[in-house]
């Protein structure tokens, strides 16, 4: 290891999962500490939570994971919302609430997620950004165990995690819902890893599909297991008859699609290998059970196929239940907002889908850009939303209206669309004819989906209230809607001062211990650069294979955001059957163009030396 840097003290507004105790680094001396800087809106952060679970289990007597929650959205600064997210996503380690991002600054984090490893003597020995670090972390932890056992500075035993009391509600953080042919509703009971069929009143349970334990087992409804399922979509009758199942479930954390036979409740895996997608982008059809998926979040039948909101890689995918194939439908994996032909458009964590009554338009809740997008005639467009860093609760003309991390959409018969404006706790409506956005209902607890009944009523999946809520009669009429001119927010992180003219962007990448860059199938690295506003970059935008890029910044644009995506393929070194790995990270780097400022901008994709 290189120079030893003392870890900054852990300070914040409060702690979760500690039984009310405030932790200090001195309390953790003798343990290996992994500080996970995360925010609960971020799909990459949710991936890391799942990657860390096996490490927490394997090294439970020596490793303490500390989640440091440094929020992006205004709603995420709310202490109650954070507590709900910690339960929702099964976070079983202490969490420090860092609403002002003080710890983010102290530990020099630049991206969500960032991981910092602290050795048993209290020194930072590794920092890494992004996901895909589990194997590298395991090797590093093994090294630290050997070193500090030899020194006598490693203390084994239980960590400081104290589980909160078990809640008692019929549903727990329901995610999505769908109408069944019998008039009942099927709800994804996400935090309880199952599906619940409820009566038309939206309250009375009829049956549960899934054991309620986290897992990925197929089989009878009472024994099958899921992991934080979300979207549910009925197949057309003729398709279901051939496929052999009636509906498909987005089994989000398992990176799978599951088929369900309604009569028996039997569950079968229909798409996904179970591995998280870490491959190159292509437009080929793949064997559905062999292809890797990444956090499928919602589903809709459109364009004669099942469309998947692939939140984990900022794309839409398709699945053909009859041919049993799957592939990419829209998006490039670049996390940003850009309209255009489906193969060239940019998205950011699409999480909700709904098809217009005439079947011509697919509405998309693009959550991280706080936008409502649509697919029509092979093109992706934007109805409401301005980008990754602009959000709020503002009604009126669509071009100036603002949402905050919407997770659901519901097309109405008149051509308009309802929006589950999740972090604003509201239901909004966009009318394409008038091009206006209005507020239909507010005061809701993280609405995540909407269902239109045959009688014209609207049910809201009120996720953080653990229930389905019926909108008041008349809420969808012009008289029932209101116009809100609420706060406007822009995510403000300390900008990096850079010089006008030529600037070198360097992505610093160090393979994990025991790995090397893998060029078996071509270049092992990829770098994509863009800017908001686009005028910020005179030269240097685009895609290449080198992790260093000459940029030319426009001196007449005083500030903006550089959007950077980097990935590197590695394989195990010096072993007969080497495993392959892909490390990937997206950055939105705020910059300020200042005369005489730096001409080199380094970003760490993976760095195992502090």
Describe the structure.
This protein has 610 residues and is mainly beta. Strands 1-7-6-3-4-5-2 form a 7-stranded mixed β-sheet. Strands 36, 38, 39, 41, 43 and 44 form a 6-stranded mixed β-sheet that branches. The protein has a 5-stranded antiparallel β-sheet with strand order 16-20-19-18-17, with no helix packed on it. Strand 9 (185-189) and strand 10 (194-198) form a beta hairpin. Residues 1-146 form the Thioredoxin domain. Residues 204-217 have a biased composition (Basic and acidic residues). This is NHL domain-containing thioredoxin family protein.
Could you list some keywords that capture this structure?
610 residues, mainly beta, 7-stranded mixed sheet, 6-stranded mixed sheet, 45 strands, 40% strand, NHL domain-containing thioredoxin family protein, NHL2_NHL_rpt_dom, repeat
Which residues form runs of ≥5 with pLDDT under 50?
Answer: none
The neighbouring-strand order within the major sheet is 1-7-6-3-4-5-2
Radius of gyration: 24 Å
Helix content estimate:
under 10%
SSE layout:
Blueprint: E1 5-6, E2 14-16, E3 32-38, H1 43-58, E4 63-69, H2 79-88, E5 95-97, H3 102-106, E6 114-118, E7 123-129, H4 134-151, E8 174-179, E9 185-189, E10 194-198, E11 205-209, E12 232-234, H5 237-243, E13 247-251, E14 256-260, E15 267-271, E16 286-287, E17 296-302, E18 305-310, E19 315-320, E20 325-330, E21 340-341, E22 350-355, E23 362-366, E24 371-376, E25 379-384, E26 390-394, E27 396-397, E28 408-411, E29 417-421, E30 426-431, E31 436-441, E32 447-452, E33 458-462, E34 467-470, E35 485-490, E36 496-498, E37 501-509, E38 515-517, E39 525-532, E40 537-539, E41 542-544, E42 548-553, E43 559-572, E44 580-593, E45 600-606
Parallel strand pairs: 3-4, 4-5, 36-44, 37-45
Antiparallel strand pairs: 1-7, 2-5, 3-6, 6-7, 8-9, 9-10, 10-11, 12-13, 13-14, 14-15, 16-20, 17-18, 18-19, 19-20, 21-25, 22-23, 23-24, 24-25, 26-35, 27-31, 28-29, 29-30, 30-31, 32-33, 33-34, 37-42, 38-43, 39-41, 39-43, 40-42, 43-44
